[in-house]
Design brief:
two-stranded antiparallel ribbon; 7 helices; 8 strands; alpha+beta
Length: 256
């Protein structure tokens, strides 16, 4: 028997983590995405490999049903809909949609970081489209919105399949970022009656949105242009959730 010592750590979601010996992983032939079984007896923890979780398969009569099954963690979906256009990591062939993405390999931080960048770009582009009354830019924003929604749906899938890693706070933050993207999409078609007020409020909202993920976003006060009211509300909620995440991270670092 080989005895090793590993340091216990705590992540931003409050879960305790540690690494496993690489030689042991290789000896049992385990791969990324495999399941591990834990047996607890007093202060002793036994770990054994169980292999990959069984594949889940179901049929979908519509595109909406197929997307719902994707979110719910199904690996194979019998459908004639080409849902690979709207979902990440899906291959469609012979009436079967196969989910190929390894959701366990994606961290919540990576997902919300990608989603945040998309929401920010959407918001900036939407304000420009509204100010210039630019129809071609609005079309581009609609395309950007679809790409952001793909990442959000992937985050929803992770919250189901890997809920121990995707905490409720990260889940809620992903939903608010999607809400910001939706607000931006609607903003692009807004009629701006007071350009100066809109531009002033937009700068405040843009700076607040930019600082959401690093915890530097500050509460904002003052007038808010009507076209930006929903975006302000969403950004405020996202900033509050992000501050919760980083507060937990700082507290966990102090205890290590």
């Amino acid at each position: 028997m080989i005895m090793e010592t590993r340091k216990l750590q705590k992540n931003a979601t409050g879960s305790f983590i540690t690494t496993l010996p690489k030689d042991w992983i290789s000896s049992i032939g385990a791969k990324e995405g495999d399941l591990l079984k834990f047996a607890v007896s007093g202060n002793v923890l036994e770990i054994s490999a169980t292999g990959r979780r069984p594949e889940k398969r179901a049929s979908a009569d519509s595109k909406e049903d197929a997307v719902a099954l994707y979110i719910s963690g199904f690996d194979m979906i019998d459908t004639t809909e080409k849902i690979n256009v709207e979902l990440i990591g899906v291959e469609c062939s012979d009436g079967i949609a196969r989910v190929m993405v390894n959701i366990n390999a994606l961290s919540p931080q990576e997902l919300v970081k990608r989603q945040h960048a998309m929401a920010y770009n959407l918001f900036v582009s939407a304000a420009k489209a509204a100010l210039l009354d630019n129809s071609s830019l609005r079309d581009e924003i609609s395309r950007m919105m679809l790409e952001e929604r793909k990442v959000h749906l992937l985050a929803l899938r992770k919250s189901v399949v890997d809920k121990d890693d995707m905490s409720p706070v990260f889940f809620a933050l992903s939903c608010e970022l999607d809400g910001i993207a939706t607000a931006a999409n609607e903003l692009s078609g807004a009629k701006i009656d007071d350009t100066r007020a809109f531009e002033a409020d937009f700068v405040v909202a843009k700076d607040a949105l930019f600082g959401v993920l690093d915890g530097s976003s500050k509460p904002f006060a003052g007038k808010k242009h009507a076209a930006l009211s929903d975006a302000f509300w969403r950004i405020g909620k996202a900033a509050q959730l992000s501050r919760t995440i980083y507060l937990n991270l700082r507290l966990s670092e102090r205890t290590l």
